[in-house]
């Protein structure tokens, strides 16, 4: 009781001072370009070439500045009291995991209210994207996050504490699961005071993170380049942290469309049992960083027609999302905002790796695939062999900021891809043994596959599809 009421144990002068400071901060946020450059009543504003703005609306900023300052009880850093001698190991004892190291204040209630949970994973570099994700996804969010060494864990503690202190949506909706590598596992947590994370500007989450990352040690940066990022481990951890019947598995910088969770939840609750297992594909687009986030599908198509949005990885590796059939999706235009199936995926191919919604009974991501190459597409391939039907939803969509162009691949990334290619030769035989099916004729000799345009093809392209968090 004391903790819940202690804010009011102040003098009247203190309360007045706090109120005035909130008013001044509100005015600054609404006029400094961080929160006021937002959605406009005119859809044409969404295609004007202006600097990319955060997704926060002025009303949301106002809510956060006033409500958070009065109701925020984030007086401790994240992971406080976490015993690093505990945790659980993966099957090869390469990584240690701490499930629900941080629990969203409303995560249990949201898990009961929504039939679907967003599961995602990230490293320190991209975790700022959760600000946008949590604004558009009002349901539970299960996030697995990786930290390499004492210094990175310390920076992660500060930044996650900052996010929870500044953003109500993150504090309430997001639960975090921590992953640490065996050979750089910290032995203890550093002492962090409230002032260490409350001193940063709540209006600048990305800039704050960039400043913190500069403090990371050189040896940690070198280790990160040399060692693969365990994205499949993290995907499995995040997915199993979801308590809902369905999971929408994404990478942290994939931003859902507005009111995504509510529309998807209603759709899922209205579905009747089907004769075959189903995964619902959500189209993903790249978005020019100079435009504002599209408010709906019509807005997105207008951006695409102007060359300011395009299918995800269209230039980097087209097969990554090609089977979704974006042309058909864009042709499915309706004034209704009711979520429905636009069409079935009929031209599935091995390198396809969509972001999809499915029950939490789908095959896990194979954790032998570390770093880049064969991480997501192998799991989707196994679903296809197991008999899953992929159906494309409309008008829901997701967005990845920035129009990507093909770049030369660094040597370390190519090495990881080559290692994973060897594992794939084992994996595809295991899949055949499990299901006694080879619909894409992956077990044919490579020469025969090439003659008929079958098989894995250029697996390096599959690596390009891995959106490392």
Fill in the keyword field for this structure.
single chain, 469 residues, alpha/beta, 2 domains, 10-stranded mixed β-sheet, 4-stranded mixed β-sheet, 18 helices, disordered C terminus
The largest β sheet comes out as: 10 strands, mixed
User: What is the structural class?
Assistant: alpha/beta
| Low-pLDDT segments, ≥5 res | 1-11, 23-71, 457-469
Number of strands: 14
Task: Give the neighbour order of strands across the main sheet.
Answer: 1-2-5-4-3-6-12-8-13-11
Mean pLDDT: 84
Estimated share of beta-strand residues: 5-15%
Rg, Cα atoms, Å: 23 Å
Instruction: Give the assembly state of these chains.
Output: single chain
Distance between the termini: 40 Å
How many domains make up the coordinates? 2
Helix content: 25-40%
Broad shape = globular
- Helix count? 18
């Amino acid at each position: 009781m004391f903790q819940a009421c202690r804010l009011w144990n102040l003098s009247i002068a203190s309360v007045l001072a706090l109120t005035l400071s909130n008013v001044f901060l509100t005015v600054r946020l609404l006029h400094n370009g961080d929160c006021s450059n937002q959605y406009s009543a005119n859809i044409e504003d969404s295609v004007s070439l202006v600097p990319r703005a955060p997704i926060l609306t002025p009303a949301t900023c106002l809510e956060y500045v006033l409500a958070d300052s009065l109701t925020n009880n984030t007086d401790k850093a994240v992971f406080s009291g976490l015993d690093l001698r505990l945790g659980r190991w993966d099957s090869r004892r390469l990584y240690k995991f701490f499930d629900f190291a941080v629990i969203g204040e409303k995560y249990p209630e949201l898990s009961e209210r929504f039939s679907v949970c967003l599961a995602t994973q990230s490293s320190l570099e991209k975790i700022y994207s959760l600000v946008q994700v949590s604004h558009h996804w009002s349901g539970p969010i299960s996030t697995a996050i990786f930290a390499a060494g004492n210094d990175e864990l310390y920076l992660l503690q500060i930044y996650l504490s900052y996010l929870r202190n500044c953003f109500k949506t993150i504090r309430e909706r997001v639960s975090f699961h921590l992953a640490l590598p065996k050979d750089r596992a910290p032995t203890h947590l550093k002492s962090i005071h409230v002032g260490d994370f409350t001193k940063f500007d709540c209006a600048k989450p990305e800039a704050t993170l960039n400043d913190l990352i500069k403090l990371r040690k050189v040896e940690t940066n070198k280790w990160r380049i040399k060692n693969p990022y365990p994205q499949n481990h993290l995907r499995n951890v995040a997915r199993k942290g979801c308590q809902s019947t369905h999971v929408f598995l994404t990478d942290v910088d994939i931003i859902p469309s507005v009111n995504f969770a509510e529309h998807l939840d209603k759709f899922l609750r209205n579905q009747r049992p089907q004769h075959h297992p189903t995964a619902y594909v959500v189209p993903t687009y790249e978005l020019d960083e100079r435009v504002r986030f599209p408010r709906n599908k019509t807005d997105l198509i207008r951006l695409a027609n102007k060359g300011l949005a395009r299918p995800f990885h269209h230039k980097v590796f087209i097969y990554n999302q090609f089977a979704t059939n974006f042309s058909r999706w864009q042709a499915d235009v309706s004034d209704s905002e009711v979520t429905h199936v636009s069409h079935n995926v009929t031209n599935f191919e091995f390198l396809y790796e969509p972001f999809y919604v499915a029950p939490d009974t789908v095959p896990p991501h194979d954790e032998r695939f570390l770093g880049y190459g064969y991480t997501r597409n192998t799991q989707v391939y196994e679903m296809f062999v197991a008999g899953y039907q992929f159906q494309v939803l409309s008008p829901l969509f997701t967005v990845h900021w920035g129009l990507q162009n093909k770049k030369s691949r660094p040597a370390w990334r190519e090495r990881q891809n080559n290692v994973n290619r060897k594992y794939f030769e084992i994996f595809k035989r295991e899949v055949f043994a499990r299901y006694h099916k080879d619909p894409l004729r992956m077990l044919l000799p490579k020469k025969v596959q090439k003659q008929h345009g079958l098989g894995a093809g250029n697996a390096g392209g599959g690596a390009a599809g891995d959106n490392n968090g």
